[in-house]
Amino acid sequence: MALPIWLFILASVIKSVIVLGVLLTAVAYTVWLERKVVGHMQNRWGPTRVGPFGLLQPAADGLKFIFKEDLTPPHVYKPLFIAAPMIALIFALTSISVVPFGNSFTIHGYTIPLQITDVNTGLLLILGITSIGVYGVALAGWSSNNKYSLLGGLRASAQMVSYEISLGLSLVGVLIMSGSFSLRAIVDAQSGHFWGFIPRWNIFHGQIIGFFCYLIAAYAETNRIPFDLPEAETELVAGYHTEYSAMKFAMFFMAEYTNMITVACVATLLFFGGWHGPLFGPPLVRVILPLFWFAVKIFAFLFLYIWVRGTLPRFRYDQLMAFGWKFLLPLALVNLIATAIAVAW
After folding, report:
1. Is 162 within 8 Å of 149 (Cβ atoms)?
2. CA 129 to CA 48: how far, in whole Å?
3. Torsion of CA 237, 59, 28, 97, to 10 degrees
4. Cβ atoms within 10 A of the Cβ of 6, count?
5. Computed from CA positions of residues 247, 253, 257, 259, in that sequence, does the dihedral angle turn out positive or negative?
6. Contact call for residues 265 and 298 (beta carbons, < 8 A)
7. How far apart are CA 140 and CA 152, in angstroms?
8. How many CB atoms lie within 10 A of CB 325?
9. Contact residues for 15 (Cβ-Cβ < 8 A; gap 6+)
């Protein structure tokens, strides 16, 4: 049964508040997880002092950013200098609004989807919003009136242009197989099994090359090691956010980790079956399990992000650009053509 307009608005507000709270908490503890995992990889402890196992360290860091003096250098262009971190964070948070987290559930005959809003072009919306987010980085570099910041902003823009093409092409194979831009429809197309035991996820259904292209492009899109050239401290001090402090710097920090979670959500939805997984137990458990499987897949993807950071060195910038244009783009095209031929056959 369709929801009345007032109940639809109320449900949307409640879902937005819950998703935003969970997302910001996940961002804070992804930082904690990264510090702990990389610490153990490097034979050190990571956060241990604030709370058990350092679990309250994210709260301490947040308070530090709030109360730290906010310095604005006199040579910056203030309107864009102030707006840049807001642009980066707002567009990073907005993209999560179309991500479905699980099946719909029914209350008193009303069906409520586990998603803030369901649009038929959800994938295009995410790609468009995340692409606009790079304006925050570029404007931060330009408005700082600092050569290191400017180079960092230019690098981020060049990476986005180079790797956005490969990232988009890597997803076209999934779109051909599912026949829809709707994220929920893409997940529904991955239900069922091959031969009774292999999940019908796209990663097992001919899109392993597409996933590889998406994974590499996502690392470059989110400016993560080994592609964190826009903020390479050995070359650019801190890159585009060199002149930022306090909450303005924290906004860039939050935007980066929010984008990581968004990328993990898209990878889970498009290649790993979304919330699909083994279902068992009473009805309440069957409602909760899809959320659990979705969270486990996102965690696995984030752990891979951190693992790569603790393992691989940073590329040179010419290597980064050459890899994107000379290897990743042709590989994504080959995957697209092969998928089109296989579906048509």
Report:
1. no
2. 37
3. -120
4. 8
5. positive
6. yes
7. 9
8. 14
9. 115, 116
Q: Which two tokens stand for residue 55?
A: 């679990």
Contact 313, 229 (CB under 8 A): no
The span from the first CA to the last CA of the chain, in angstroms, equals 40
* The token pair that represents 222 in the structure block: 């989110």
Distance CA 275, CA 307 (A): 24
Alpha helices for 144-207 (secondary structure H): 147-178, 183-188
Residue 41 sits in which domain range? Answer: 5-344
β-strand partners of 194: 198
- Mean pLDDT by runs of 10 across the 345 residues of the chain is 69 83 88 88 86 87 84 84 88 86 73 78 85 83 84 82 85 86 85 75 85 88 79 74 84 87 90 82 78 90 88 82 88 89 82
pTM: 0.88
Q: How many domains does the chain have?
A: 1
Residue where the block lists tokens 């999560």: 96
